[in-house]
Structures are given as structure tokens and as C-alpha cells.
Design a protein that fits this description.
disordered N terminus; about 170 residues; mainly alpha; about 70% helix
């Protein structure tokens, strides 16, 4: 089950205005600032109907307090509900790669992300990294080279892609 569970049913969502939306935005800021209690209270008073990234922020909150399974479930629900939102794919993929070190699952996940967002540099690079960590250097090089050729998300991230490519090419 997801955490926190809203105390409101989605049929009771605030139809009169964007208050729920702004509560989720305030919760996001609270999570970033480490105010997990405030974030929990704000998210518990809203539903996924109030904001397109409700599951994303519930996942970030749950992860920040050590509720990893709840975080994973929220991030999966985020991708299911809003696959068009590229940013919604990042936390679960990062979790699979860095926290769980489940490279085969991360590979499958990033293949889905690349299929949904083929021009997103980070997804293709993370796919290449997942392949590399499984010892599949040739496949990794193909994905990382393709990532390098896409529009850079961040210069530091692009430099990291170049570094991985250089490592592979050096053997």
C-alpha cells in the first residue's frame, strides 16, 4: 500500500480551486528542506487527483524517512499515471541503479523510459550504465554514444558520459 494514505477520498477532492495543488507544491518544498512532518501532513490532506506529481513527492518523502518499499510503489504509480512526464521516471531508475544495484531491472526500466522519451539524454545514459555494470561493454558503448549525441541535460552529466565512453574504449 502507498504511504501516506490520504484522509480524503478522491471523490472529496477540492473541486473549488487549486488549493490541493498548492498543498502538494508546499509539501515538495518541505521535503526538500527536510521538513518531513510538514510534508507528510500536507500530502496526507491531498490525493493524486490534486497534482500530477503527487506520487513522485510521496515517494521522495517515503524514501527520505527510510520507507523504501513505499517509495518504490509511489514511483511506480507515478510512471504508470503519467508516463509522459520524463522527470517522473528519474527517482525509480536512480533507486534501482544506486540503492538496489539491480542492474537487470534497471536495464528493463530504462529501456521503457527510452522508448517513452527517446530524446532524453539521461535515460539513454543510465541504460548504458546499467549495461556496463552487467559487463555488456559493446551494448553500453552503443547507448552511451547515442546519449552523447543527444542534447545535453547538464554539462557535468554530459562530461560523465564522455568519461564512461573513454573508460570503455580504453578497455
Amino acid at each position: 500500500t502507498c504511504w501516506p494514505i490520504s484522509t480524503r477520498s478522491s471523490t472529496n477532492a477540492r473541486a473549488e480551486g487549486p488549493a490541493g495543488y498548492y498543498d502538494v507544491e508546499r509539501a515538495a518544498l518541505a521535503v526538500i528542506d527536510g521538513e518531513t512532518g510538514q510534508a507528510h501532513d500536507l500530502l496526507a490532506s491531498t490525493t493524486a487527483d490534486d497534482h500530477p506529481r503527487w506520487h513522485h513527492w510521496n515517494g521522495v518523502l517515503a524514501h527520505s524517512v527510510g520507507r523504501v518499499e513505499a517509495a518504490t510503489e509511489h514511483w511506480r504509480l507515478q510512471v504508470e499515471a503519467h508516463p509522459e512526464d520524463a522527470e517522473g521516471w528519474l527517482p525509480l531508475g536512480f533507486h534501482l541503479m544506486q540503492d538496489r544495484q539491480d542492474y537487470p531491472e534497471a536495464e528493463a526500466y530504462f529501456r521503457r523510459a527510452v522508448a517513452q522519451h527517446p530524446e532524453h539524454q539521461e535515460f539513454r545514459a543510465w541504460l548504458g550504465d546499467a549495461l556496463l555494470r552487467q559487463g555488456r561493454r559493446d551494448e553500453a558503448l552503443v547507448e552511451l554514444t547515442a546519449a552523447r549525441d543527444l542534447e545535453a541535460v547538464d554539462p557535468r552529466f554530459a562530461a560523465g558520459i564522455d568519461d564512461l565512453i573513454a573508460q570503455i574504449e580504453q578497455g
